[in-house]
Amino acid sequence: MRYLERIADNHLRDRLQAMGAVLTEGPKWCGKTTTAEQQARSILQMQDPDYRDDYLATAAIKPSNLLVGETPRLLDEWQDAPVLWDAVRTACDKRRIPGQFILTGSNSIDDEKIYHSGTGRISRLKMYPMSLWESKESNGRISLKGLFDNPVQEVEAVSEMTVNDLIFSACRGGWPASLNASSPSAKLMIAKDYAQSVCKTDISRVDGVRRNEKLARQILRSYSRNISTLAKTTSILADVIAADSIECSRSTFDDYVSALEKLFVIQDIGAWCPAIRSKTTIQSRPKRAFCDPSIAVAMLGLTPESLRTQMKTFGFIFEQMCIRDLRTYTEGYFSNVGYYRDRYGLESDIVLHLDDGRYALIECKLGSREIEEGAGHLIQLSELIAKHNIHEEQVPIREPDLKIILTGGQYAYTRPDGVHVIPLACLKP
Predict the structure, then answer these.
(1) Per DSSP, what are the bridge partners of residue 404?
(2) What's the number of CA atoms in the CB half-sphere (13 Å) around residue 376?
(3) Which of 234, 246, 254, 349 is the most core-located residue (most Cβ within 10 A)?
(4) Delimiting residues of CATH 3.40.50.300 domain(s) in the chain
């Protein structure tokens, strides 16, 4: 099976050269272990059924024995034995050599189970399901980094993906296993199996707390119905209860959502709240989101055929594709993805911040008819920031470096007002 190069490959290599260990974390099936194996010189697979009991027993008595091996040594699913974290940290202190260990995990670990944060010894690298660039579907004619470095350049490119192609990719998801499947139906099955596995087993295994599969499924389904919206928690909970007469308290709901976040399945988008309006005017609720749009598709029982006649629904799904890809493209810049919306109707679907302070205002629009509205929002928000800076000279807000509309259309171009219109299938890191 041919390995498809991941954006994380270079990030992992760079971090191994700088730090004693690297933790690669993200949802299961996104390719963490396979990516780590490309650079590891020895491997410890904690979930190997032939040796799991022996590994756990060793971890309980002398965890340092599990660290012996050629470096970088891969500790796959290390969270099964949380003591390995502190063992790795101690080993890094003693050896004082970079690139000793790679840790991979499909769920986050409670800080209470480890004694040291790992700061200065263990670097954290996030991985996501494959972007369109990584799956060889985006032609990559426009570099996001290149745009940030030269915001005034004019873009020009043509996408080879149709809207129907985008719909299929969203339904299939960015799961590496789906690309190796032999038929369209087999490709679509991976996301369905993923969602089923999360509800049936993973949500209970993440922290050893037994949870109800039916309730987990209903919560994910309600989340899916509210994808890319600012739905209140109370509204989602009411939907869960009403859907199938399921009893679910607020505390139980919060517990299930927390478990899904630990599995990196739910990855809500936080609000960007600059001081350009009253705090009560700017929306601050999280925008509901998944690590991959295919989860929502699977939970709602949608198909490529049904989505072709439900373009409004696909608009919400498309926004999730954009978020997934942007997160992947900018992980090396320790980026942050947010959104802006106020009660006056002014919005930016995505606010993409880099760690050096640069940021982009981004709208996600499927068709050409929506582009004018999206550009208007971005221009108005940019002007509002500029007006704020005139009156607040002591506390200015950086004006956006980029204004982008990501589309499902064919053509990339720069408008006279400076807004870049870019098909998602033309973008690369």
Answers:
(1) 362, 420
(2) 7
(3) 349
(4) 8-126
* Confidence class for position 367, pLDDT limits 50, 70, 90: confident
Rounded CA-CA distance 238/357 in Å is 39
pLDDT of 332 > 90? The answer is no
How does the average pLDDT of the chain come out, rounded? 94
**Cα distances (angstroms) measured from residue 9 to each of 24, 126, 317:** 11, 12, 27
pLDDT at 175 over 80: yes
Determine the pLDDT at residue 180: 86
CA nearest neighbour of 325 among 104, 65, 137:
137
Q: Report d(CA 190, CA 307) in Å as an integer.
A: 18
Question: Rounded distance, CA 249 to CA 45, Å?
Answer: 38
- Determine whether 40 is exposed, middle or buried from the number of CB atoms within 10 Å of its CB (0-12, 13-18, 19+): buried
Give the percent of the chain with pLDDT over 70. Answer: 98
Rounded Cα gap, residues 304 and 317, in angstroms? 12
Average pLDDT of span 336-346: 94
pLDDT digits (tens, 9 = 90+) for 286-319: 999 999 999 999 999 999 999 999 999 999 999 9
Region 65-85: what's the mean pLDDT? Answer: 95
Asked if 311 and 279 count as a contact pair (C-beta separation under 8 A), the reply is no
Q: What is the per-residue pLDDT for 114?
A: 62
